[in-house]
């Protein structure tokens, strides 16, 4: 990882240990770095583009990493992205080569009958809350928020801290409990993104679902962007209302009508939100690279995942590791050792990649989306290129 601002930034705060010295997380690109001429891939954090120099890694493959929207991408970042040749993209978009997914929806094998009768309104007497620190955004979210009655704001834009940032760093468990205590008082959370760009939906949407709040969303370009990835009927979109006043009145109505409010939680009957931010993207990078380069690093990565799970990592990390374990199956499915003798057909690639996508990506409506087809086509292209390179090396 080249240009990582914090070595734990891309693992949800969990320390990232390199695999038998086969990977390097570089925090300051202008300082000394390992000899990278033989590396299979280097991932570039585009947010540090201005610090890049002539000592950039000379890896076989280059991956561009950025989770910000185009609206929040400074000119230096855009210029670098346009001038540097990247082999793969690693962004918030589902049609990226390597999507950085904050979470995804899993359909339960056994329906949770209690979800249909549970009173999700119990103890939630207040309307809505919002943690926000960026007070001027291109989405105009701050203007909309001012017109919502019963909204409690926390963070730099309100003067109310809510939960101490120092506590977040030094006593994370106490901070997490503070956040849960606040969430338990409210029915809704404003999941307002700072930009309205195509498919731009961040962890702001997923976290309230996990805490039992109904997210009121502003993001993406349209409602359909959320329908692609969200549990059905689990959110309220600002665009559903002609005016903010109508939205505010509807939230007030749901705060006094427990039956109507509980309907927004019925999706938990069949679905489960799983957070996959921690180590998933790294796994996908190495899966792609191992496929193209014929490298042993992919195999080593899967083995390291197994060891971490067996040793018992932190709860959140372990949960993610287990969700990503199908990569071992994907390793077999996609055939990293594919040659002219055992080349798979395009149809087989499509079927197997869909299976991989279903295990690691969104389900339901998203499974039939055009972005799934795009991911399949990406996989086809990569595998066919590898097969062709194998043919060339044998001729």
TrEMBL record:
Gene3D superfamilies: DnaJ domain, Glycosyl transferase family 10, C-terminal domain. Its EC number is 2.4.1.-. Its main location: membrane. It is an enzyme of class 2 (transferase). Pathway: Protein modification; protein glycosylation. It is a single-pass membrane protein; Single-pass type II membrane protein. Residues 127-266 form the Fucosyltransferase C-terminal domain. GO terms for cellular component: Golgi cisterna membrane. It is found in: Endomembrane system; Golgi apparatus, Golgi stack membrane; Membrane. It comes from the Eukaryota. GO terms for molecular function: alpha-(1->3)-fucosyltransferase activity. Keywords: Glycoprotein, Glycosyltransferase, Golgi apparatus, Membrane, Signal-anchor, Transferase, Transmembrane, Transmembrane helix. Belongs to the glycosyltransferase 10 family. PANTHER family: ALPHA- 1,3 -FUCOSYLTRANSFERASE, ALPHA-(1,3)-FUCOSYLTRANSFERASE FUT-1. This is Fucosyltransferase. It comes from Perkinsus marinus (strain ATCC 50983 / TXsc).
